[in-house]
Structures
1.
Amino acid sequence: METKETKVLAGAHTSAAGGVFNALLEGQSIAATTIQFFTSNQKQWAGRPLSDETVDAWKRAKDTSGIEVTMSHDSYLINLGCPDEENLFKSRKAFKEEIERCHALDVTYLNFHPGAALKESREACLDKIVESLLELEGVVAKGKTRLLLEMTAGQGSSVGCTFEEVGYIIDRVKDRLPVGVCIDTCHIFVAGYDIRTPEGWETTLQSFDQAIGLSHLYAMHLNDSAKGLGSRVDRHSFLGQGMIGLPCFETVMRHPSLRHLPKYLETPGGPPQWIEELKLLRSYYDKGPSR
């Protein structure tokens, strides 16, 4: 039997429709050992406060499911680097409320997209993101949730598609906030990092370590890509049926620097597909470390 330290942490972005506790129950139904979910409607600025009954239902479902590591994904509307003051205010308020919901549910990680440079330079956007995060230092300190910047595909005006951009943010907040990084395989592939082979992963991880530091890598999204290397178009595909291919995912599940990290499927098939993909990922993990 695996110990807690060696237990494979693999799951998916499960549905919280009808109550956040349902995300845990769906996770249990697909044999997930970790889940990602939305704590509120990701397409609305105002999220409902969590009632005591909701929190209690979450705790009961968590105990029943045995899922200990959880990750929320913030609203797609939030842009912590927004140059428009009104939308920046809305973004910071929504992010603050997301942190508070994560604390109420004792969520392990809060995954978020850094932001988008809509009018200003990319560096000005990065500085605004740093400012936004540091403004929330007091709120973050009230709980145990760690904030994870998700690597982006670089589509449109999104920042955070290079390790250097994410490292810029991490370096300026790491001494005051519990932060880290979530790598999305589809995103970094279309952003230009070739992770199709074990050798490609070695080069990519060396670049990550130089720009950010591997100690800041806490989680991964596992998705194949419908678009090619460097295309900067974010289109997820089933594992092994996209432009990345299965050798990438076997490397992830066996690499000593990656195999212990919690991993989340965001592939398009939903629960029936995830059951099969999780079986595949566990089979890779069970082969043991690659070196």
Note: The domain at 10-285 is CATH 3.20.20.150 (TIM Barrel).
2.
Amino acid sequence: MRSKYIWMDGDLVPFEQATVHFLNPTMHYGTGVFEGIRCYETRRGSAVFRLKEHLQRFIDSAHIAGILDYPYSAGELYNAVHLTIRANGFAACYIRPMIYMTGPLTLTLDDWTPATGIAVWEWAPFLGKEAAEKGVRMMVSSFTRHHPNVMMTKAKISGNYVNSTLAKTFARRAGFDEAVMLDPQGYVAECTGENLFIVRDGVIYTPPRTTILEGITRASVITLARDLGYTVVEEPIARDQLYIADEIFVTGTAAELVPVGEVDFRRIGNGRRGPVTQAVQELFHETVRGLGARSHEWLDFVDETVIAC
């Protein structure tokens, strides 16, 4: 996760110097806001996937978190992302903008001032390259996804991910790759860092948006699946519906699109990537690499962007 420079409130700072103080309120109270974005190498050069949508969610997350008077516009952050990619010279990379708070160790947002950093680094798919075809093994976690009135589910706030960290850690210790989180009513919500889809009789189902993060990769995959002629239904999914699914796959910026071969020691389908998953996955990969029909509307080409320094 190394690079040459990290963008810190308007300046490109050498990697080793991009630090925050030990008494930073975000580190103590988990009040940071972040985003995950990917830049892909295409035939036309480096291109960021759905950058504007990611940055809008980043600003929306700050608003949901209660941060008033955030100092940067989406346009300023857009330029900062492109500047940081160029400065580091990556053809493809993962992009992590983050808002962290500075000020005294109180529990009041109004006592703090938001600061912003943007890091980029080369990062392989989160669940591993082999998982794209072989699939991953999952367990249903004993940890419940947050009630929407306990933690804001529509924002990527650092504190939300303590829940994910516990679920993921216990799953890995039990020998699984990932965990499925149930919502407070006991229905399937999402995984620790990915949205979830199941396939039954050629129809794709995914949980409704109420208690999940509204993933940008999730929305993209729904659109691409419908472009391929599949019906996609958003409705509650019970735990046992996972076990009898023909296929399961998960989506996320870090993971991209990964099939699930097993849940709670039950094999899903043939235990590997199924035909529906493969079709959607291939179109997704074509799209992010500039070869799909929607590439022109979803990719921002770094080399074509004028940077206002």
Note: Residues 131-288 form a domain with the D-amino Acid Aminotransferase; Chain A, domain 2 fold (CATH 3.20.10.10).
3.
Amino acid sequence: MDKPVENDLGKSAVSISKSNDRRTQQGMTWIGILVSVLFLYLAFRGVDWHTMWSALLAAEYFWIFPAQLSLLAGFLVITWRWQRLLRPAGRVPTRRAFNLVMISYLINYVLPGRLGELGRAYLVGQDGISRMAALATVVLEKVFDGLVILLALALASLMLPLPAWGHWIGLAGLALFGSAFLITLLWLRMETRGIALLTRLVTPFSKRLADDVAGMAQRFTLGLATLQQGQDIFAITTFSLLHWTTNALVMAFTLRAFRFDVPFIGAVLLMAVLGLGTTVPSAPGALGTYQWLAVQVLGLFAVDPSSALTFAFVLQFSQTVTIVLVGGLAMLWEGTSVGRIRRYAERY
């Protein structure tokens, strides 16, 4: 179980930097809003409203049902993967783990700053699992997701001619997630020396804070321990591949609703580009960047931009409704609230 000092995360350091952190968070929120506004403008520039409305009316919405079932299946796979990642730190029942996953995605969809990951670590900490270790497992999730998306993008590039922006997105994703994976492996190999170095750097300022930092680093490393077992790496990779396959099915079923002539590899490409492109700062739910990227990808298959924009809004709206409904029910079941999780996240 976490020591009380972990919950404080070094009260002295937090009290000194809290105002700066809050200003930084507010600044990032405004940057995200401006990015979303810019991409919404680009997405709507030159749009034909009549074509958008016609596409909205002509869609076969019964295809949205299997799309959302695929989405929920993907969240169940995420749950199983997270349970596997958490094993070194503790075990969480499947229903509870699923609820916490859905709550974290709900938080990311309604609050800026992607606070859902911190919220998931906070909630699982109530089960006696180190919150720092839980946070490390969420980091690993993102790294594996990024690597699988890059694999999907590479596969699509072998079968489809990608424009320059597609290659740039792939290179940026490779730099981000590839370096994160290598740094993680390096830290695991040099954990003892790394913690000793951190301790030496912080000790001149505060011995107590140095002890706190060393403890947090050890608990964070515990959350990375699955990378030291080959069978765990295989299981996590398999879950990651399955998760993004369900995500591609969400795209494919929704594309079918609009009767676009896009092959399944096009749905894979759309999934990969949206997965990578929406990591940039934006408003909650990646509003704006989501629409613009979808229009660019579907343009490769000669889909009219106005119809593609309608598709993007329907795709995002249907996913948002599912996440908010299921995440809201999970929040009621767990007896927590958005406000409580936000207050926790803002402390750090």
Note: Residues 11-44 form the longest helix (34 residues).
